[in-house]
């Protein structure tokens, strides 16, 4: 059932994203053309105009892609589960947890796809021999610096993996926090959206308070000094500790928001 | 006779407003039950509780022995009073969707019914009139071989000719161990297909009766009885 939900969710959202991604690729290609025209030795002011306009339109389209990713993420949850379409979705023999996993996976997928497509369109627009030369030179020198710091490649691979995991879990917990707030909002009989926004701000305030509380010991000079000396003595270990703490925190948030949303959708569903 | 649906002590409150209170009634297999009552009497709320879209404040609902959930959604076919289909989909996409998710869905039957009502499966929902959309939804819902059909205002928005076809479909489509609960205020139109009636008034069951009883013992039609009970 989850596979079918995922397929259906991708189908419902792809028709919005794919045209936009195609537009980004085409704009990248056009801009490449315009930019090379404007770089011609004989290029006048008039010939540089398309490049300027094209770049501006491209930048706007990139922004539009990210705004749309965000809007669709909210809309797919709010409208397709808690709006009229929810009448269909919640009478399917599918558990609320499966709905949640499907929405979450596909939202996450589009967020990363939007980033990847933007990167590719930038490459289409700008990549040439010189670009790749400076890119590989930059990477090589960065790698050299890292190796000077710690020659063990495994260390950097592990740290890299930790930060990728952190980025994914962080994205998931941000999405789940929005889902949780919307699910709290639907409990209201009259002001569902307003309550959802209020719930989001409330949850945010609680998280802020918690993180302030957790970092409070740093205010003591003794603690701050101890952390600093630990960091300078064991820099790599400190990075692992920081990434580990971040992962643990993100994992706890994901679990809390997932279970909370699942509870609200299973036991407190209130379709108007 | 086994009890297909049992509601006991069922109440639903929205804030301070009590939509349903102390509802007790049950439905046996093989019955067509009319859920009748004036606007705002709680018909839709009751149907949504049975289908699991709302959670009762107190009381319990058992569909074939299970509380509303995954098990009951497999055997309950629900027609809401609104359109719940994606506008951008074509009729045949939606048939595929139902086939994917409901093991008891009969796609051939659905296609046949679309043809009978002259609806092109390639048409997008967006381009259909409100009445046509309602027909499509009803076709989908009735093409399942479910145990319990919950039809909220199934004939409200369609023309009288389609109304007859739909009512015919309802009586001829379902198997003897299945039951139908349909809510409507077009009583005269549905009267001939009903076995039992439940009158709802201000969130309470005002009367339950077998239609034959009403006709034989009281010598009245359900429509006349309704007008009498709910006289304004």
Question: What is the topology?
Answer:
The complex is a heterodimer of chains A (272) and B (232).
Chain A: H1 2-38, H2 45-82, H3 86-89, H4 96-126, H5 129-149, H6 153-185, H7 192-215, H8 221-233, H9 235-267
Helix pairs in contact in A: 1-2, 1-4, 2-4, 2-6, 6-7, 6-9, 8-9
Chain B: E1 3-14, E2 17-28, E3 32-36, H1 43-51, E4 58-63, H2 70-73, E5 76-79, H3 91-101, H4 107-116, H5 130-142, E6 148-152, H6 160-173, E7 179-184, H7 187-190, E8 196-201, E9 204-210, H8 211-218, H9 222-229
Parallel strand pairs in B: 3-7, 3-8, 5-6, 6-7
Antiparallel strand pairs in B: 1-2, 1-4, 8-9
Helix pairs in contact in B: 5-6
Can you characterise this structure?
The complex is a heterodimer of chains A (272) and B (232). Chain A is mostly helical and 272 residues long. Chain A folds into two domains: 1-127; 137-272, no CATH class. Chain A contains nine helices and no strands. In chain A, helix 6 (153-185) runs antiparallel to helix 7 (192-215). The mean pLDDT of chain A is 91. Helix content of chain B is 35%, strand content 27%. In chain B, the strands form two sheets. Chain B has a six-stranded mixed β-sheet, with helices on both faces. Chain B has a three-stranded antiparallel β-sheet with strand order 2-1-4, covered by helices on one side. Chain B starts with a strand and ends with a helix. Chain B is of the alpha/beta class and 232 residues long. Chain B has one domain (3-229): P-loop containing nucleotide triphosphate hydrolases (Rossmann fold), CATH 3.40.50. The mean pLDDT of chain B is 90.
């Amino acid at each position: 059932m989850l596979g079918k939900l995922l397929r259906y969710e991708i189908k419902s959202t792809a028709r919005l994203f794919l045209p936009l991604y195609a537009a980004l690729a085409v704009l990248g290609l056009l801009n490449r053309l315009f930019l090379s025209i404007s770089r011609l030795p004989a290029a006048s002011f008039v010939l540089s105009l398309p490049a300027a306009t094209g770049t501006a339109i491209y930048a706007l389209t990139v922004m539009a892609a990210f705004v749309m990713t965000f809007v669709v993420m909210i809309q797919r949850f709010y409208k397709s589960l808690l709006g009229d379409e929810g009448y269909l979705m919640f009478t399917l023999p599918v558990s609320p947890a499966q709905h949640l996993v499907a929405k979450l996976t596909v939202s996450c997928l589009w967020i990363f796809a939007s980033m990847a497509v933007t990167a590719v369109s930038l490459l289409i627009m700008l990549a040439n021999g010189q670009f790749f030369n400076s890119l590989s030179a930059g990477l090589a020198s960065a790698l050299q610096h890292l190796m000077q710091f710690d020659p063990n490649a495994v260390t950097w691979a592990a740290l890299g993996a930790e930060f990728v995991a952190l980025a994914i879990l962080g994205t998931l917990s941000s999405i789940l926090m929005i889902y949780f707030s919307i699910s709290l909002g639907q409990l209201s009989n009259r002001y569902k959206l307003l309550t959802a926004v209020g719930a989001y701000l409330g949850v945010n305030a609680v998280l802020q308070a918690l993180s302030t509380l957790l970092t409070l010991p740093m205010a003591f000079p003794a603690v701050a000094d101890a952390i600093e000396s630990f960091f300078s003595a064991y820099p790599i270990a400190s990075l692992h500790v920081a990434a580990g703490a971040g992962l643990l925190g993100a994992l706890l948030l994901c679990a809390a928001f997932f279970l909370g949303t699942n509870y609200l959708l299973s036991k407190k569903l209130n379709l108007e | 006779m086994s009890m297909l649906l049992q509601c006991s002590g069922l109440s639903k409150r929205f804030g301070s407003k009590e939509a349903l209170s102390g509802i007790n009634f049950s439905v046996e297999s093989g019955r067509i039950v009319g859920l009748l009552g004036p606007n705002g009497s709680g018909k839709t709320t009751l149907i949504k509780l049975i289908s699991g879209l709302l959670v009762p404040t107190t009381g319990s609902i058992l569909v074939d022995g299970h509380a509303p959930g995954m098990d009951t959604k497999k055997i309950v076919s629900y027609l809401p009073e609104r359109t719940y289909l994606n506008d951008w989909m074509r009729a045949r996409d939606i048939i595929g969707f139902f086939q994917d998710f409901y093991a008891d869905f009969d796609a051939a039957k659905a296609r046949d019914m679309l043809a009978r009502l002259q609806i092109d499966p390639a048409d997008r929902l967006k381009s259909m009139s409100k009445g046509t959309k309602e027909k499509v939804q009803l076709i989908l819902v009735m093409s399942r071989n479910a145990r319990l059909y919950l039809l909220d205002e199934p004939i409200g928005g369609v023309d009288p000719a389609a109304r007859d076809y739909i009512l015919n479909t309802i009586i001829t489509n379902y198997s003897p161990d299945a039951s139908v609960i349909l809510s409507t205020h077009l009583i005269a139109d549905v009267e001939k297909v009903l076995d039992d009636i439940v009158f709802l008034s201000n969130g309470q069951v005002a009367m339950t009766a077998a239609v034959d009883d009403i006709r034989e013992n009281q010598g009245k039609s359900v429509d006349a009885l309704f007008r009498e009970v709910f006289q304004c």
